[in-house]
Design brief:
Blueprint (H helix, E strand, L loop, with lengths): L2 E4 L6 H13 L4 E4 L10 H7 L9 E4 L2 E4 L1 H11 L10 H16 L2 H6 L9 H10 L1 H21 L11 H15 L6 H12 L1 H12 L15
Parallel strand pairs: 1-2
Antiparallel strand pairs: 1-3, 3-4
Helix pairs in contact: 1-3, 1-8, 1-10, 4-8, 6-7, 8-9
């Protein structure tokens, strides 16, 4: 049985991506949650994950002795291992575009990621309103997300970014949907509808339900609250 190592579901956006992809695609795996205690080199989290991969970060996929780390590498491995699941779009042009937007997410959107950390359990609309006013990068990242999703939904007709099926691109942006909800970031109605469609999917809903059930409160993950 392949194993997927993930962090706290309330906070770990990178862990969320391959987990919901595999769950929604019906790819069997054993979940191993390695809860955050700190990210210091001597923490239990770092000690546990460093035994699996040299960068000591989650997620990590272990499949029959093969260790794959980094969300995009895991997604590519799954797409090659399970071609029948159609995790990337069928056409070469659509695959190229899907890879492009995933790579953009992988390396970009620093304003939104740094200032609006994933925190599924929280409701922080007042923080979101302040950040939109005070941090230009948050507003520009949000505008780019809306532009991207609108273009893909219009081109492919929905309900997902590249048509009917939930794929790697949808999994990659699922944590952004939770951020938009947590921080009350204003988006057009059809973008809100897309977020709701994604979050209603069984695989995504399962992650969110687990995140809501977690009772951890980690101060180093909570720049805007002092308690839960």
């Amino acid at each position: 049985m392949r194993k997927l190592y993930v962090g706290n579901k309330n906070y770990s956006s990178w862990s969320m991506r391959p987990w919901v992809l595999m769950k929604q695609a019906g790819i069997d795996f054993e979940e191993v949650v390695v809860r955050f205690d700190s990210f210091e080199a001597d923490s239990q989290f770092k000690h546990t994950i460093a035994a699996l991969n040299p960068v000591a970060k989650v997620p990590v996929l272990v499949d029959d002795g093969l260790v794959v780390w980094d969300t995009l590498a895991i997604a590519e491995y799954l797409a090659e291992t399970f071609p029948e699941k159609q995790l990337w779009p069928r056409s070469a042009a659509d695959r190229a575009r899907a890879r492009s937007v995933c790579a953009e997410m992988h390396s970009g959107f620093g304003g939104l990621r740094n200032h609006c950390g994933m925190n599924i359990e929280a409701s922080l609309p007042e923080v979101g309103a302040r950040l939109l006013k005070e941090v230009p990068e948050v507003a520009s990242d949000l505008a780019r997300i809306v532009q991207m999703w609108r273009g893909l939904l219009d081109t492919h007709g929905g309900p997902m970014l590249f048509g009917a099926g939930f794929g790697i691109a949808d999994a990659y942006f699922a944590p952004i949907g939770t951020r938009i909800k947590t921080y009350g970031l204003p988006v057009p109605a059809h973008i809100t509808a897309y977020i709701e469609r994604v979050q209603a999917l069984p695989g995504v809903k399962a992650w969110i339900d687990d995140a809501l059930a977690e009772k951890d409160f980690l101060q180093f993950e909570e720049p805007y609250r002092t308690g839960r």
